[in-house]
Amino acid sequence: MRVTWWGHATTTIEADGTRLLTDPVLTSRIAHLRRRRGPTPPAEAGQCDAVLISHLHADHLHLTSLPFISPDAALIVPRGAAKLIHADSGPAYSDRCIEVAPGNQVRIGSLEITAVTAHHDERRLPWSSYAAQPLGYRVDGSPSVWFAGDTDLYDDLAAETGAIDLALVPVGGWGPSLGPGHLDPLRAAEAVRRVGASTAVPVHFGTFWPIGLDWIKPELFLPPGDRFKAAMTEADPAVKVEVLVPGESIEVPA
Predict the structure, then answer these.
(1) How many CA atoms lie within 13 Å of 142's alpha carbon, on the beta-carbon side?
(2) How far apart are CA 195 and CA 224, in angstroms?
(3) GO MF terms on file (predicted)?
(4) Cβ atoms 113, 36 nearer than 8 A
(5) Contact criterion met (CB below 8 Å) for 171 and 202
(6) CB-based burial of residue 166 (10 Å sphere; 0-12 exposed, 13-18 middle, 19+ buried)?
(7) Which domains does the chain have, with CATH numbers?
(8) 115 bridge partner residues
(9) Quick check: 22 and 168 in contact, CB under 8 A?
């Protein structure tokens, strides 16, 4: 398996000839946020067999990025998201949606994808009344992967996700605060410990930041990746942590 981190929560998972793209943000801007680290993802980043969308927030369901995605790729989205996609982008995109809820499974090529619960704000706000249950995804290939989306810890995390090999886990945010429904480096390490991953890649940090606030709380921009690695060493030193830079890939053995 090959995993590429394009920045924020956008990754490509490639295994057994199948390519999945998570929460694609393929531009240099999201409203008031700009990409501060790493180049804008190249055209190849949008090449995939399916997209996994975790929730409705604009830094995860980034409607502006949809035209950069393979035109025949399935869009696996939380139940209720297709209405938002139809209203904004039309039937060319909403007709490709496969809506799922926790426990639902979808097969894409050689990979079995299971939607799992994420504890996070379900609304599209601030400019929309749309809402949908946030999700993470378990991808069963060789190895297995948990893409957490945005979530906080919850009691049934380990039971619902099951034991996995690789965790793509959020460790930060995109601004000078981190509200409820997110994992910081310490809670992210605990989440990885609970799901029993042998390898972890921190995501959702060190990419976007509000325009004009570059020097506000800089400790929340780049350091969460290394802080997660240190926290993971404390929680379970057997876990291999790969702190990537945007555009970098790793090979994960079966």
Answers:
(1) 4
(2) 20
(3) hydrolase activity
(4) no
(5) yes
(6) buried
(7) 2-244 (3.60.15.10)
(8) 137
(9) yes
Going edge to edge, which strands form the sheet with 135-140? 105-108, 111-117, 135-140, 144-147, 166-170, 199-203, 240-241
- The owner of tokens 């793209």 is 21
Q: How far apart are CA 40 and CA 34, in angstroms?
A: 10
Residue 128 has pLDDT above 90, yes or no: no
How would residue 127 be classed by pLDDT, with cut points 50, 70 and 90?
confident
Return the structure tokens found at 85. Answer: 């996609």
CA distance 73 to 43: 14
DSSP secondary structure, the chain, as one string: -EEEEEETTEEEEEETTEEEEES---SSEETTEEE-SSPPPPGGGG--SEEE---SSTTTS-GGGGGGS-TT-EEEEETTHHHHHHHHH-HHHHTTEEEE-TT-EEEETTEEEEEEE--S--B--SS---B---EEEEEESSSEEEE--S----TTHHHHH---SEEEEE---SSS---TT---HHHHHHHHHHHT-SEEEEESSSSEEETT-TTSSGGGTSTHHHHHHHHHHHH-TTSEE----TTEEEE---
Please give the model's pTM, rounded to 2 decimal places: 0.97
Tell me the average pLDDT across 52-74. 98
How far apart CA 133 and CA 100 sit, in angstroms, is: 9
Q: How far apart are CA 23 and CA 27, in angstroms?
A: 12
Amino acid at 186: L
Confidence band for 179, pLDDT divided at 50, 70 and 90: confident
